[in-house]
Amino acid sequence: MSDRPVSEMSFEEAMAELEQVVGQLERGDVALDESIKLYERGAELKKRCEAKLKEAEEKVAAITLDGEGNPAGLKPVEGL
Amino acid sequence: MSDLIDDPVPGQNEPEYSVTEISNAIKRVIEGEFGHVRIRGEVGRVSRPRSGHVYLDLKDEKSVLNGVIWKGVASRLAVQPEEGMEVVATGRMTTFGGQSRYQIVIEDIKPAGMGALMAMLEKRKQQLAAEGLFAPERKKKLPYLPEVIGVITSPSGAVIRDILHRLRDRFPRKVLIWPVAVQGERCAPEVARAIAGFNALEPGGRIPRPDLLIVARGGGSIEDLWGFNEEIVARAAAASDIPLISAVGHETDTTLIDYVADKRAPTPTAAAELAVPVRLELLTWVEGQGGRMTHALGQGIAARGQRLRDLSRALPRAETLLDGPRQRLDRASDRLPAALTTGVQRRKVRLSEVSGSLRPSVLSRQLAQDRHRLDVALQRLATGLSQAIERKREALGRRADRLSPAPILREINQKSERLQGLARRLSDAARRQSDERRQRVEALDRLRETLGYKATLQRGYAVVRGDDGVLTTKAAAEQSPPREIEFADGRLKLGAVSKVRRAGKSEEPPEQGTLF
């Protein structure tokens, strides 16, 4: 169990740790106190994963270029 | 007539051209005759000045032909000519009168068949492979769930639509499109620029920096896709820090960028599939993990509860625990009074046994025995002492016998002999030294005698002395009259004896002294 705050984790990190927590709980070789802590951590991780999954929104923009071909700004793209 | 100058001769009516006239005439002939030609050859030196025109040589084993591609034509070419490429050039011949040269103005130039094109591509591929740009260890891992995806492609067309649709199905994300030309001369530089441009974006800047790039183009002829075979594109893809998926053409088309990309997708749709996981699947998975976790915890608690119940069932009742000890206590307290009595009895018996044998006669017998042992020991002490003294005395006598003055005397003799020898050597040396000195003194004295004036006197000379010492000149003798003449055999005083002849004699050398 890492000490990293869950709120800083990427989806992939949270997912990997959640998997690990579940594995540990299922093996059942953790002390009861420890397993309750693990469960709490796992619940947090699960929440993080769900939040990340719910964040999914599409936003498409095209880069506009200046005269020299450098990016100048963004232009929303719709209808594709 | 003179041959020196050209002089019109009657009957000679050939027209006379100026240089420009003949130059223009040749131009007309050549342009008329070769107004449209197809020429096959190898591209020699290529130069691209800033004007945008392309100058190149076409050559075969024997000849070289200068050629020019005007800017407008050059920008339309699908494949840019490169040195060493086997090509077919179409165009018109023209002359360049100012330098007496002819050249071809190329209107189209293409690799001479697929073979030539592929050979060039193969060469490029080998070079990049040799540099290690295709090495598997260079490939970066794609992020599991990119936040922002940068797509480099044409902003219109089916490709971007396919990608967006598939992303929407799987996992809607933020997408940034960098519009580029996907064919023609502008394709390669724009794609390369876009890859570098995405990489150059600051994380957290105004334009978000993508964490995944997709370079995509739909299917087309090999010429259409050629831009993705250009070296600058491959190098830009290799230099990208952001993981990159290439999706150019159909599954069967493989372009150079595919070898360098971190992942190659056969189609743009497939690229979207590689880019993101399926959101619904992940939601299900997370849900599943939650369920497993709850189940596992419940399971753990239930198992522990069961074990607790099992153990408590096996635990004996408190009363039964005390039965055994209590019985032992009863037995012991029963036996205690009897044991006490027997213990005292046993000790009493032993006391009477011991005290029975304790009588004065036993003590006095013991005393007598000890006294006797003391007497014996005393006797042995006296004799032992005298014997020991005797032994020591004998040992002393033996040692004293061995002690004699002879060795000491011998040593004294030796030392005194050595002393005498040394004294002898000392006096010898002293004598020798004084003899030597005496001889040297005598020798010096003899030398002195021979060097002194006395020896001269022996040969008949004399010394004349006045009042103030020896007179050696007539002038001195006139000043101070001679008082004494010294001969070898003595001194003659002149004073009183010769007062009479004083004036005459005072100057006489000693030799003359012998006359009287």
What does this structure look like?
- The complex is a heterodimer of chains A (80) and B (516).
- By secondary structure, chain A is α+β, with helices and mostly antiparallel strands.
- Helix content of chain A is 50%, strand content 16%.
- Chain A is built from two helices and two strands; from the N terminus they run ααββ.
- Chain A has a two-stranded antiparallel sheet with strand order 1-2.
- With 516 residues, chain B is α/β, with parallel strands linked by helices.
- Helix content of chain B is 53%, strand content 16%.
- Chain B is built from 16 helices and 14 strands.
- Chain B is flat.
- At the A-B interface, helix 1, helix 2, strand 1 and strand 2 of A face helix 4, strand 7, helix 5 and helix 9 of B.
- Chain B: Residues 17-109 form the OB-fold nucleic acid binding domain.
- Chain B: This is Exodeoxyribonuclease 7 large subunit.
- Chain B: Heterooligomer composed of large and small subunits.
Give short descriptive properties of this protein.
heterodimer; A: 80 residues; alpha+beta; two-stranded antiparallel ribbon; 2 helices; 2 strands; 16% strand; B: 516 residues; alpha/beta; five-stranded mixed barrel; 14 strands; disordered C terminus
In short:
By secondary structure, chain A is α+β, with helices and mostly antiparallel strands. Helix content of chain A is 50%, strand content 16%. The interface between A and B is large, with 39 and 41 residues.
